[in-house]
Amino acid sequence: MQEIYAGGPNGAGAGTSRIDFIRKTYTNLAGAMLAFVALSMVLHMAGFGFGMLKVIAGAKFMWLAFMGGFMLVGWLATNLADNAESNQKQLMGLGIYVVAEAVMFSPLFALASKVAPGAIGAAAFITLLLVAALTWTAFTVKTNFSFLGGFLRVGGLVALGAIIVSVIFGFSLGIWFSALMVLFAGACVLYDTSKIIHEYPTDRPAGAALHLFASIALMLWYVLRILISLASSDD
After folding, report:
1. Is the pLDDT of residue 8 over 90?
2. Keywords for this entry (predicted)?
3. Residue 184: how many CA atoms within 13 Å on its side-chain side?
4. In a domain? residue 4
């Protein structure tokens, strides 16, 4: 979930119907998800994630630097996808964001493969079920969930602050924080889907796909963290 929406008044685009826009958005989203899976597999087979785990474990604040770099690249990619005039540049922004997410996930996937074999597939399945249910809800009810935007901005800042504090002082946020973040990510999916249905500029399908992909990736991250925590507690 991001908060950069460009375009004409009331989310109007350049002569593209809302139905065509929604179709293009989900086509771009499907492509982004497939590219994320493929790139994640390549990085995992190359041992990139295990290397990142060693780097992060060797320096207390390396994770903050890693996360800060991801946020910067994500912000630049989002601006490109949302504000570029040409479809090619918008897709370039989406592609850059997918690469950044694959790199960000690589140490988590490496950890999961060590301590919770099978958790990655299970997390992906759970995430897809949750996203499907939320998407069905957004498309079948008449409510415009854009009112969630203010709550999500505040919640995102609080969550980010909690993560930074936990890294600085060296304590774990625990499984309950992950559960709350899954709920937060679900609200982001609902918000982004509602934006796509009702308000997002129709000449920005790649940007819309990026926002929704980011929310889905956030959900996957914390669902996987929950499964890793459960597997670790069983040992």
Report:
1. no
2. Membrane, Transmembrane, Transmembrane helix
3. 23
4. no
Boundaries of domain holding 21? 11-234
Q: Which residues contact residue 193 at a Cβ distance below 8 angstroms, ignoring those fewer than 6 apart?
A: 134, 135, 138, 139, 145, 212
Q: 123 in a domain, yes or no?
A: yes
Express each pLDDT in 86-128 by its tens digit: 788 888 989 999 999 999 999 989 888 888 888 999 999 999 9
Contact 226, 175 (CB under 8 A): yes
Domains held by the chain: number = 1
Q: Tell the burial category of 209 from Cβ atoms under 10 Å away from its Cβ (0-12, 13-18, 19+).
A: buried
Residue 2 maps to a domain: no
Q: Is 191 inside any structural domain? A: yes
Provide CB contacts within 8 A for 162, sequence distance 6+: 173, 177
Q: What is the Cα–Cα distance from 194 to 191, expressed in whole angstroms?
A: 5
Side chain identity at residue 174, one-letter code: G
Return the H-helix or E-strand segment holding 89. Answer: helix 87-115
Say whether 172 sits in a helix, a strand or coil: coil
Least confident of 10-14, 144-148, 228-232: 10-14
